Model the fold of this input.
Amino acid sequence: MDPADVQSYRPIFNLLVVSKLLQWLMARQLLDYLNKSGLLLWHQSTYRISHSTQTAVLKVLSDILIAIDTGDLPALVLLDRLAAIDTRDHNILIRCL
Done:
C-alpha cells in the first residue's frame, strides 16, 4: 500500500468503544432498576456506587470490633467456593447436572 495514496486508507471504526458504551448504559439501567425495586441488599458492596472491597472489609472489621466491645466472641469464616468445587469428583457433578 502506498502511504501517499488516499485510497490506501480506510475508515476506522472503534467497535470496542461502542460496545463499552452499550455495556455501561445497560449496567446503569439495570442498577437503577435494582435500586428502585429494593432488590439489592443494604450491605452488598458489588456493583454499587461508593462501595468497594475496601468498604466491605471495613464493615467486617467494624462488626468484629463492635462484637469485642460488647463482650461477644466474634468468629470469621471464609470459604473459597472454587476450591470446594475442585475437591469434588467431577464425574458426580456432571451426572448431577
